[in-house]
């Protein structure tokens, strides 16, 4: 058997395999390794009043609501005591977004319910910038600042 022709073919195969491996490495290294950013918004209320913080309207297309938890503020678990409701959102696409919350009784929403609105910008790398808030929070209290972190 003449092996003079199989050597060039095996060399070409090795070169092609090497080029393919380099292409895979290049593609993988160009993928964004930036973790998605998460927004945490915590709002206080008093469980005994029947009022609770709810998302008012739709969540913007730039953010996805991940979860909402309501926990007592003290370990006493006193019925009707102060509670904190925490909402978690994750950046999913570039653009501007506004999230509004209303402190309401579900059985009797009113025009004068407290309302806070948060404004965000999500860049192409899914980094979130807090652009400010507005509205009316609990009397004598500033609107809580959101926490933004990589997940």
Average of per-residue pLDDT values: 83
- Per DSSP E runs of 2 or more residues, the count of β-strands stands at 8
What's the helical proportion of residues? 10-25%
Give the strand order, joined by hyphens, for the main sheet.
3-4-1-8
Distance between the termini: 61 Å
Instruction: Look at the helices and sheets and give the structural class.
Output: alpha+beta
Any low-confidence stretches, pLDDT <50, length ≥5?
A: 25-32
Give, in order, the helices and strands: HEEEEEEEE
What's the number of structural domains? 2
Radius of gyration: 26 Å
- What is the percentage of strand-forming residues? 35-45%
Structure, explained:
With 151 residues, the protein is α+β, with helices and mostly antiparallel strands. The chain folds into 2 domains: 1-31; 37-150, Sandwich (Immunoglobulin-like). 17% of the residues lie in helices and 43% in strands. It has one helix at 6-30; strands spanning 37-46, 52-55, 63-72, 82-91, 95-104, 114-122, 128-135, 147-150. It has a 4-stranded antiparallel sheet with strand order 3-4-1-8, with no helix packed on it. Strands 2-5-6-7 form a 4-stranded antiparallel sheet, with no helix packed on it. The longest helix is centred in the N-terminal third of the chain and has 25 residues, at 6-30. 13% of the residues are buried. Mean pLDDT is 83; it is low at 25-32.
Any chance you could write out the topology, listing elements then pairs?
Elements: H1 6-30, E1 37-46, E2 52-55, E3 63-72, E4 82-91, E5 95-104, E6 114-122, E7 128-135, E8 147-150
Antiparallel strand pairs: 1-4, 1-8, 2-5, 3-4, 5-6, 6-7
């Amino acid at each position: 058997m003449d092996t003079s022709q199989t050597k060039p073919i095996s060399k070409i195969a090795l070169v092609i395999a090497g080029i393919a491996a380099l292409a895979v490495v290049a593609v993988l290294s160009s993928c964004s390794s930036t973790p998605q950013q998460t927004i945490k918004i915590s709002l206080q209320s008093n469980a005994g009043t029947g009022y609770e913080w709810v998302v008012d309207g739709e969540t913007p297309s730039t953010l996805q609501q991940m979860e909402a938890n309501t926990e007592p503020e003290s370990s006493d678990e006193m019925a009707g005591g102060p509670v904190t409701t925490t909402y978690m959102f994750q950046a999913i696409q570039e653009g501007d977004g506004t999230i509004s919350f209303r402190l309401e009784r579900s059985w009797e929403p009113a025009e004068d319910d407290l309302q806070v609105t948060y404004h965000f910008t999500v860049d192409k790398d899914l980094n979130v910038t807090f652009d400010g808030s507005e509205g009316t929070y609990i009397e004598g209290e500033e609107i809580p600042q959101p926490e933004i972190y990589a997940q």
